[in-house]
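Sequence only, no structure available. Ideas?
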Amino acid sequence: MKRKILIEKAEGQVRTFILEDDKIAEIHCSSEQEDGAKDHRLGNIYVGRVKNIVPNIGAAFIEIESGFNCYYDVKDVSMTFFTKKTGKKPLCIGDELVVQISKEASRTKVPTVTGNLSFTGRYAVLTHGNKRIGVSSKLPRSMREKFREQLGGYQEENFGIIVRTNAKNVEFAEVMKEIESLREQYRQLLSAAPYRTCFSCLRSSPPGYITDLKNVYMDGMEEIIVDDRELYTRIQSYFEKESPELCRILRLYDNPDFPLCKLYGTESALKKALQERVWLRHGGYLVIQPTEALTVIDVNSGKHTGKGSSEESIMKINLEAAEEAAHQIRVRNLSGIILIDFINLEQPENISTLLREFRAVLEADPVQTTLVDITPLNLVEITRKKVYRPLAEQVEGI
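Reply:
I predicted one. Tokens follow.
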């Protein structure tokens, strides 16, 4: 698969478009602001203070700055590093502890923090609370077994390691070098934490566009194109320090007569990704409606006038809708519970084929996405792990 990344500056935002085989597969919008501590970015690590404990929901609220509360699951307390303890109970009001933002704030919810600290590199993740050795399921089985065997010596450490998909095409020594660097960062942070004042930001995540570059799967990456000289310089400096091999595919696009957004249609793609209705190639359409609890996607036949039997026409629309729904879930960064109301099919074998094909296209999503089942009301249930805010909130929140 051919991959390409476009990074644009527009309307006070930095917009990252990830293309796969020349089709926009993901869109991320982030602030231009360089100071991540003030921005409360995903991955930031703070010395927080327990403000309130709510036993009936198994949660606490932790301030990471005066008056700024975050949700904390008390099940995390066993893995949390305390810098100040005020009582004998596992968690007490006034305790000071090291926490990391694990979910960004949404319209109605405050950020979520955890005591399970993660230090993320390009090839591996070091985890403070979870001590297991894990390897991406997207790597070949033989490679997964080899990594587990070679990393067995870390089982005695106070942290766990997860090898990422990007480790596929690099030497094991390079992965080990990064793990050692992450281990040193981890040790330095926990050594310094007891001497830092409450509300200190111990570790600030890089700007969103840098995080996107760190997290994207680089296999088949042909170009990283930036339309702003200042952004280009920042990214070049980051690559020179962290991934020198990527400097060769970094490009500055500087043509005011025909801007990057026109060349690749990114402005139009962003606009479409925010609309409720999405038209399919053969006349059908999707209606995508996020709610507080879940997202509903309705499949409609629209202008489709298929030949042959009604069941064949419906199957054709549904298969096309399944492919487009998977694309829209990813490009809009929808998460949580997603229900899809396909057009009803009568034949069980057609239902099985639809689910099989839909499951196959969902597996291409780098974010964990699971097709659960089809309900008695013929609604297909999907769950998708929440990492970042939905695209609509990213655009509105900046």
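The longest helix spans residues 310-331.
Hope that gets you unstuck.
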